[in-house]
Each structure stands twice: as C-alpha cells, then as structure tokens.
Amino acid sequence: MSDKFKKILLLDDEGFILQVISKALGREGFECMVASSVVQAIDILQQETPDIILSDYQMPIINGFDFRKIVLRDKRWRTIPFVFFTSVNDPEHIQTGLDMQVVDYIHKDTPIPMVVSKINNIIGTIKRQHEKSIQEIRTAAEALNLRSVPAQIPVIEGYNLRFLYQSFEDCPGGDFIDFIQIDGKYTFAVLGDVMGKKWGAWFFSFNFLSYIRSAIRLCVFDGDFSTASILQKINRVIVPDPVLGDVLSTLSLLMIEHETGKVHYSGAGDLPLVWYKAVQNECFSVESSGLLLGVLPDGQYDEKIINLQTGDQLIVVSDGLIDSETPDGKKSDYDLFFKKMNTVLGKKESFDLIKNVTFSTENSKEFVDDCSLIFIERK
Prior knowledge:
Blueprint: E1 7-11, H1 15-27, E2 31-35, H2 38-47, E3 52-55, H3 64-73, E4 82-86, H4 91-98, E5 104-107, H5 112-143, E6 159-166, E7 175-182, E8 186-194, H6 198-221, H7 227-238, E9 249-257, E10 262-268, E11 273-277, E12 282-286, E13 304-307, E14 313-317, E15 323-326, E16 329-332, H8 334-344, H9 350-357, H10 361-364, E17 371-378
C-alpha cells in the first residue's frame, strides 16, 4: 500500500502513549501526525487531511466523544475514518462511540502488530470501496457519453494540435478540455479547471462545458467571433445560475483562424500561455487579466491576438502542472514550469518531450492536482 494512503492523526493526552504508538506505527510505514489535545488535532486538520484518525476518549476539557461530534459537523472531515483508541472497556461506552459512526474501537492493550493489521484493513477496505465506486461512476458516465476531455483530436491542415490529461490519483477532477470546429475555418480550444476536489469538481465540469459549447455556437451564429465577448456571455449566465453560482472555474478560450494563423485568446483567472516564437527561438508568456468565471457579472475579459508563424508553438496548461507538495504545503511555481518549457519547445519532437518528461510515470507521482495541457503548433 502506498504511503500516501497511510497518513494518521493520532490524538492522546498522554505524551508517552503518543511517543510509543507513533514510533511503532512509523516503523510500519505510517506517517503519524500527533496531537495531545483536541485543539491541536483541529489545528492539524485545518492543514492536513489524514487517511484515518485514532483518538483517545478520556481527555481533559474536550473528550473524544466531543471531538467526534466536531469532526462530524465539518463536511471537510466527516468522511475521514475515525477509530477510538482507548483503555475504556465499558460496553455502554463502546456502543455510544459506535453510534457516532466510528469504524472501530481498539483497546490500548492490543499488541502493536494487531493494531497495524486493523488499521491496514480499515484503510484497505475503504480504498477498495472507493475504487469500486469510481468504476461504477465511470461505467455510468461512459454509458451516458459524458466526457470532460475529447475522445479524439480534431485535424487542422497546417497545424499540429495535441493535448495531454492526467487525473489526480486516478480520480477525475475539475479539469476539462474541448475542441469545437466551425465551418472548417475556425477551431475553438477550451481548457478549464473547476475549483474543488475530485468527483465534485468533475460533476460541475459538464455544466460549465454545456454553457461554453452553447455560447460559442450561439455567438458564432450571430457573427460574434470575439473570445472576450464569448467569455463574458458565458460568465453572465454562470453568475446567477442557482447551481453554478457558488462554483468558480478558470478558463482558457482560444480561437484559431486556420487560414491566417491568428489565435484569439481570452482567459478567466487562468495561467499565462507559453508562446514559442521560431524566429527569435525564444519563449514568451501571454497573459490575460480576466476574472475567474462566476466571481462578478463583469469579468473584465480582454482579448489577445497571437500571430502564429511557421514553426511557432503554443502551450496552454492547468495549474496542476505548476503545483507541487513541499514540507510547508502546496506550492505553485509558474516560473519553474516556464523554464522547463523553454528547454523543450521549438524542437521537432517538442510534444513527445513534454509527454515523456513532464507527464512521465515518475513525475506523475508528484502531481497534487489534475494536470492538463493543450499543444498548438503551426507547421
């Protein structure tokens, strides 16, 4: 079992117990976060999400039952498996704890190897149930033909259009990609990221995609090819929407003019595009100042015109590619990503280099969010 599935919050007011149990579990591959009071435990939960909580019951000021009630009241924590680790043997007391939806009671006299086995079994069972749920949802989504990324890439003569997508921990999340071709003359490229985690964000991504697809086709039908105007119309519909009103999303919206090589670009809280100019043999950032979708009725979207010349390349990414986990928490570093792209763009095999390096199996282990990328090259 991977270490990332074995992070434990251990709560006990006895320092000796914390020291002994955390060391013993640490030797078995667990990462223990220790707290000697409920206040300390809550502080940890504000920063970290453990895979399981082991809590004593008999503690001063706030006891284990009260701590369990606090956890259950918070939607961020209520689904974390909770185990009472206590010396109390009273059946009535144990029943009260079990009625609070804890997954197990482990007595402190239980031999450490058995404690480890119990914890592994709990985490393993939950992981298997999670994987089963994922498969069931995937099956349903496929039956309904629901996709947050396209099944195939559109072909544009004179261009090389590709994309990459990697979900976080093999769970679909908020990233979505789409390509919409109009009359064989224009291709819209869409890359967005719904704020939120995993399945919740994934669900809302389809709502955003529906609005975006409809807005693009309606605007084009009315002769409006401005990406800023289209983005503003999408935003004005989303802001008052009773379902999406409180859900925010970034969006990169590009329109490629096949014949001229012009790329119209507008962004909503997204990352700057990376533009490799073949003539200068150098990369440049192209940034839009628009607000996240759903923040305000007026998103203040602007429109950039990128004139792609032969050999030019364009990269659009979601923030998963610039995020990493550090001892101090999640860190975003666009400059580092830009420097990496500077070393691979402009080459004949640029896309493969990005795929084999940035999206390699080894680097994918370091992802802390969904990662998406659109690659556009004018041949």
